[in-house]
Design a protein that fits this description.
4 copies of one chain form a homotetramer.
Chain A: E1 2-5, H1 11-23, E2 27-32, E3 37-42, H2 49-53, E4 58-62, E5 82-83, E6 89-90, E7 96-100, H3 107-119, E8 124-126, H4 143-155, E9 160-164, H5 168-175, E10 180-183, H6 191-197, E11 204-207, H7 214-226, E12 232-236, H8 254-261, E13 266-268, H9 270-274, H10 280-289, E14 294-298, H11 316-334
Parallel strand pairs in A: 7-8, 7-14, 8-9, 9-10, 10-11, 11-12, 12-13, 13-14
Antiparallel strand pairs in A: 1-3, 1-4, 2-3, 5-6
């Protein structure tokens, strides 16, 4: 059960209301987000919602049968929107596009990709400066100085930045230069990191674990939300299966299931989802048709020369062609006879 | 290496040519299909293709580096077409639709579904009469008598029939009443069954195994083709993974990969691929957008009352709505600016 | 519910008893095996077992909550024993050893391995004559003539034969020369084959599917048993997972779980279970310690020259060493203080 | 290639030697551990090892073809030993036992388990105070105060402590009270945490990821080792597969493979590996027989009342019985005829 409390209510009044809920046999977790104040209540007893609704300061009450609560669509029916300013909104029914290199490499690279984004009206750029790599002997990213350079160039063109955070310590250093913090697949159940990101006033994109279940993904999202951050979106990026003909197996089923289970926007990552460059566009389109709110894909002026993920990175012509196809399908889906 | 031999050539002449190929260090498997006569040659030695091309009766020669040969797109670049007569063709660039119940239940059921198919211009009907079931104590299908009834009703409306064959013994009994033999996921590596289906002059739809790799699927297809049957198509129907939020995990990646690897048509089964009725349509659309040559899905007048698979079977309204959406996306894809 | 009926009872009397059970709301499947006559009853109604026990000809009654019935240990508490004559018994508490080559190749090969078996007091020999192979272009076994030769040599030394049957047609041809029919992993859900093997009066070893669940394996076994064959044993041979450092992942957990769920003997196949020769012995020992009733492993005089599975086949010295270790651990387990 | 450098060598001398190695076309990573100073060299060029061996300060040189280097057994042939003082050594050929509750709950619980350990001569106790939990609404452990209490009681009896660290911040706070830092399955690729643990002078037990490959586990270990910590051991704790009859699938194959690939001790966790209490002992024994250097399992006075993992926790009698069986099998393995 989720009980929304009036933010204006005084602390003693809030405690009085919570006390009454607890008396009904519930345990209560208080959650204060950027937008509201909630009590997440767990308990088995039957309860008359009208009684709770009548308590001082209670704005609304929802029973949520899922074990995750605040991210459940049983509570919030409309998809949550994430507003990045300047009419850049994720989750508003249009297909949001995020593109950029696997890793930030140097100024020329960033500038050329920013140019591609501007030309194609893409508003959000991806690019890693802290790279999780299986081996300690490989390039681990340009770090905070790379991020500052990345930010400087993007800012000149109004491009928003999403980049991966690997460690609590990095959050504060990165904060000024980041529009969306990305949690990578390997940190999908790094609960300490999730907790602290819940206290940050910037949007978070949470990737599904390498073999994370849908249920685990939603509970990880609940960590962030229940720590105070509503600006949250999820990302399907392929799972690990027995099949090794591709890097990962893009789980297309996850798209409609997540859209049913949660009000959070769902972004598809076809680059990691299949890992083979020539197939990235059709997997992207499939995800859109299946209901994804947006795409995050890898693009580079010369994919063959990218320092990482060159096998799954589109060049500019491929990226441009993909966007035309996305438009064709979204246009088909917005037609009035499509229902 | 695949060497196509003139079908008119006399047997002694053929043997002479084969002898010369063997002398080059190749082992040779002779394959006679409905359409042509091939020599599939395995060997490591380098060879001058022009020499083989100059041998008596040789029509053409292709080097195929895959370990499957006759189903490889390295040999045949164009997608193979399967002609069922009356302009019903699979693999010709249009989206072929196959719909019908999980199991054939009775005349009324078949008649009502046939009626739905006719109304929606669907030309091929699925429906099982031999049902592979995990438990010996559940309904295993109406058998050959059910098939005859199924055939009688379909024939009146020019509807083609696809139905599963589980056992070599059944082939002859089913032959007259079947347009396409379906090999189910559990028989995907039943090599004896594949071998005999290779000698049958009716098309075969081969489903991917429950956790079959792409490579295994192509080799199973090679069994059928190399036994003599070119009228062959493949079906992606979801794989078994750690995720149990759905019946299977539809492997969308398999669609473009199979389309690249083989010239055989690739059909998507979204019903088994996700196993949840409300998600079947978007998975179907995703598969089409990813390049599938057609769909096979389950439909029933009252899915809730179907004897099997009721959770993944569309009703008539859902089926009709799906077809409209398929048309919207295929139309978008056929637009000249889509490339 | 399983109701055992006196085999001496006349058919009309049996039908009268079954009629009374059906009247209680049960559906009844009659099963006649080599040993007994059973009624497998499905239904939800509560029933007074004493009433059924009082019916004419009823020998005993057991409620079995599993959806498989006749293979459940809830019905039969003691492990079933499979008697191959001459005191060769599987499932009697000792560790049964089956060894032999992947494929029967020629007389010399068989003779040398038989000699190894005789020297090491191994009573059952494996060896494939019909080989399921992913590619149609590879060696598929010596066939029935190979089996006859295999039989001739084994018979001279009292060695029992287990070999794979791939197809219903082969059963009759193989019958005379086979002591145990093996169903391979790819045929684990070939229900037609299982059904016919249920009507054969020879033991069957049923392998788990390549990614078959425990539940599916038990239901496949129920197919055989409920068709009439009680002489049945199961085989864990590794499953398909994301890990490709080995051929398969031997599922050690399956051993104690199967031993709890079913009264059928459980045999471990460490050769396929890990697929790497040097690790085969420790996986074999692990399986024994975990409760397996026996081992089936591959052995060859010169594994490097075996036509198939050479990477997972022990040589004679390795086989002999393994047997000594098996003896050491089984002896430790039979000590009175081990409990 | 791993080049060990004399720790006494002056910095300028070291740099001179490294410079010469780089001139041969190698990139060099310097590693200083508790025990030694190494240069890990990557490069493709062939090299005369004798030349490198002749460089100033070089103690030895090993070519290691694996992409992980310092944890490879190709470099160090003997199993590394981890000495916890008072003759408590892991990796010395005996089976090390670690037992304790899933979570530290209170003084009485710790005291009763410590008593069980003392009675059974177990020297190392597990017990979580920071608990990774899928849901934010469940018990996350007693935290640092719980650890202090845990430490106080263990210290009185000479019991060593292993407990999970989830976050870099916790390391310093925990340091004084911990003998072995455990990295949990969800943090197996938390590279920042691994890096910092590499700079700590306490042993680390690194668990395999939930669906981590053997290769990923070894590379994660390389992170810790190459940051400076040689006191490292690995833990197989079951993997995620399609089978959901158990919590995880214990990967018995991993034991001999890891023992071949790395010189680090390999510990088995049968509690998580199967997750079903009655099967924990046989999985433990299987792991020992397969070559594990030790066990870590969950024990509690009243498993049914444990706050977490009660389904997989042994009671004292079961624990005692397991130890007797471990002794029986290790004794069998140490017999001179066992080889």
């Amino acid at each position: 059960m989720i009980v929304q409390i009036d933010k204006q209510l005084s602390t003693p009044e809030i405690q009085k209301t919570i006390h009454k809920i607890k008396n009904l046999g519930y345990s209560v977790t208080e959650v204060t987000t950027q937008k509201a104040h909630y009590c997440v209540c767990h308990g088995k007893g039957e309860v008359d919602i009208r009684f709770i609704g009548s308590l001082s300061g209670v704005k609304d009450v929802h029973v949520v049968s899922d074990s995750y609560k605040l991210v459940s669509r049983k509570w919030k029916v409309a998809t949550s929107q994430i507003d990045l300013g300047d009419n850049i909104v994720i989750g508003n029914g249009n297909c949001s596009i995020v593109a950029g290199p696997c890793a930030i490499e140097n100024e020329e690279q960033v500038a050329s990709i920013v140019n591609h984004l501007v030309e194609n009206n893409i508003k959000i750029m991806r690019g890693g400066v802290f790279k999780p790599r299986s081996s300690p002997y490989t390039f681990r990213g340009m770090g905070i100085e790379g991020l500052k350079m990345f930010y400087r160039i993007c800012q000149q063109h109004g491009i928003r930045i999403i980049t991966e955070v690997m460690e609590i310590d990095q959050i504060e250093k990165m904060y000024e230069y980041v529009d969306i913090f990305q949690v990578g697949a390997r940190n999908s159940q790094n609960f300490n990191l999730l907790n602290v990101l819940g206290k940050v006033d910037k949007p978070v994109l949470l990737k599904r674990g390498i073999s994370g279940t849908i249920d685990e993904l939603l509970h990880s999202a609940e960590y962030i939300f229940s720590s105070g951050n509503e600006k949250l979106m999820l990302c399907e990026r392929g799972i690990r299966t027995f099949e090794n003909a591709y890097r990962n197996t893009f789980d297309i089923n996850a798209i409609p299931l997540l859209k049913e289970k949660t009000h959070l926007p769902v972004i598809a990552d076809p680059s990691h989802g299949v890992g083979i460059r020539e197939f990235v566009p059709v997997i992207a389109l499939a995800a859109i048709v299946a209901g994804a709110d947006g795409l995050i894909y890898e693009v580079h002026e010369n994919p063959e020369e990218a320092v990482s993920d060159s096998n799954q990175t589109l060049n500019f012509a491929e990226s441009k062609s993909l966007l035309k196809k996305v438009a064709a399908h979204t246009s088909a889906m917005q037609n009035s006879t499509y229902s």
